[in-house]
User: What shape does this take?
Amino acid sequence: MRVAVLQSNYIPWKGYFDIINDVDLFIFHDDLQYTKNDWRNRNKIQTPSGSKWLTVPCGTNERRLILDVFLEDKSWQKQHFNQIRQNYSKSAHYKEYEELLADMYLKRQWDHLYELNRFFITTVAQELLGCTTKFADSRDFKTHGVKHKKLLSMLQNAGASTYVSGPAAQGYIREQDYVDAGIDLVWKDYSGYPEYPQLGSEFCHNLSVVDLLLNMGDNATDYIWGWRAK
Assistant: This one.
């Protein structure tokens, strides 16, 4: 079984969904230290003047887990919806996704960051991109040790035969430990994504998947993983 383990991110970029599609089981690992001004609570959209951050206000306390990030300020929800509508209302597929965006930002109230992130990620992956990947919580699996050893024990208890990891983990993962555990280690390659018709004067890959969906609609998967088969 192919498994990936990542922290939940706010409206993440296409590469996040690429790795989800690569595996049979995707484990949200949110019982980790929250890091301020990271992908956990912000991402980028395109505007006429270039990319712009959308940031969920989470306070300045860094001594908490991602699971414990409580969203006291709810005003950002309408603000983010309005920012997306203002910058994408003329995109080719905005109308197709407006109801989903309104449901997420206007009809629901989010108390915890991880709940917001997971709702968006699972909805987009399963309902919009057609991923058949199963999702789980890291707390569902027994673990031991810390950092690298904790991750490896989680994968063993999840029944992983292959671990698909983002390239950033090369700095701390001990590959030999995976060999010894009988788990194949695969480094995800995020290079080669094709450009697509995008609003704005200069193309940018490093944007929320919202940009890709609102511009390309049902053809979005062609620009995440479908292009590799051509």
Summary: The two ends are 26 Å apart (CA to CA). The first helix runs from residue 14 to 21.
